[in-house]
Automatic annotation (TrEMBL):
InterPro entries: NAD(P)-bd_dom, NAD(P)-bd_dom_sf. Transmembrane segments: none annotated. This is dTDP-glucose 4,6-dehydratase. It comes from Thioploca ingrica. It comes from the Bacteria. Residues 10-276 form the NAD(P)-binding domain. Signal peptide: none annotated.
Length: 306
């Protein structure tokens, strides 16, 4: 297995426990076409997860599009040319924008609210076009809000669950942007990873677009209360601030297709997942307080803003 990462958001330590004879990390940028051509030789399946995130797209829209959309088109061309047998594109529920109905099937309209969502949708369209035009075996996966060990609390990749957990563990206020009634469908990382792998190997997924979610929704206000309960900090303060730009108000996955095509059924409940993540943070050699020094509260603003 070859892992390609420029380490802008990833970390070497995330692969530290994998055997070196079975997992090779290549530190390079997916925009380096010559490196990608060399690395894809004799590769059976490409799982394309590389991207820059939602908040990054607000302060750096052109770079976000270049990585998420343009580079995806180039990777598809390379993979087809060198004979990769299957290309699995890992998109995002952000392509939908705010739900028009729930639960959201794969046929739900796509009205992304950020350049990130738009660029991921462009990547989807390129991926489906390669299947339709060239009969090249591709699959599109739409994960809904994965979380778990090694998720991001830092910089413009920072996510609500790790931010909430670390702030609660440090007895710092949890910050909610907007009224907190926006909903998400949170899926534990091991469930999401299993679904992505299944999509790469199942015979009936070629040409398909498939949601990967837990199949339930929770408001951010309810999430904050759940984090309090898991951490055991009932008195942790919650602060509401102005809404974030481009924030999607409702996401809730219909998972019928993933069940039928992949046999996908999430195994980890939200409470169990939050507990696992809390225990992972507490097992580390660095305190929540130290980790929070990497947090950028208003992480959609220009690089370096706090």
């Amino acid at each position: 297995m070859i892992v390609v990462d420029n380490l802008v958001n990833g970390q070497r330590e995330n692969l530290a426990k994998l055997p070196e004879d079975k997992c090779q990390l290549v530190v390079t940028d997916i925009r380096d076409e010559q490196r990608m051509i060399a690395l894809m030789q004799d590769v059976d399946i490409v799982f394309h997860l590389a991207c820059l995130g939602v908040r990054h797209s607000i302060h750096s829209p052109h770079e976000n599009h270049e990585v998420n959309a343009t580079a995806t088109l180039k990777l598809l061309s390379i993979a087809k040319t060198v004979g990769v047998n299957r290309f699995v594109y890992v998109s995002s529920s952000e392509v939908y924008g705010t739900a028009h109905w729930v639960p959201m099937t794969e046929e739900h309209p796509t009205f992304p609210m950020t350049v990130y969502g738009s660029s991921k949708l462009a990547g989807e369209c390129y991926t489906r076009a390669f299947y339709q035009t060239y009969d090249y075996p591709t699959v599109v996966i739409r994960p809904f809000n994965a979380y778990g060990p090694r998720c991001h609390h830092e910089g413009d990749s920072g996510e609500v669950i790790p931010k909430f957990l670390l702030r609660c563990l440090a007895d710092n206020p949890m910050i909610i942007f907007g009224d907190g009634n926006q909903t998400r469908d949170f899926t534990y990382v091991s469930d999401t990873a299993k679904g992505i792998l299944l999509a790469g190997f199942a015979e009936n997924t070629v040409g398909q677009t498939i949601n990967l979610g837990n199949g339930s929704e929770i408001t951010i206000n309810e999430l904050a209360q759940e984090v309090k309960a898991v951490v055991g900090q009932a008195n942790t303060t919650i602060i509401h601030e102005a809404p974030r730009p481009g924030d999607v108000l409702r996401l809730y996955a219909n998972t019928t297709q993933s069940q039928q095509l992949l046999g996908f059924k999430p195994q980890v409940t939200l409470h169990e997942g939050l507990t696992k993540l809390k225990e992972w943070y507490l097992s580390r050699d660095v305190s929540p307080e130290i980790l929070l020094e990497q947090e950028v509260v208003y992480n959609w603003q220009s690089k370096g803003s706090r």
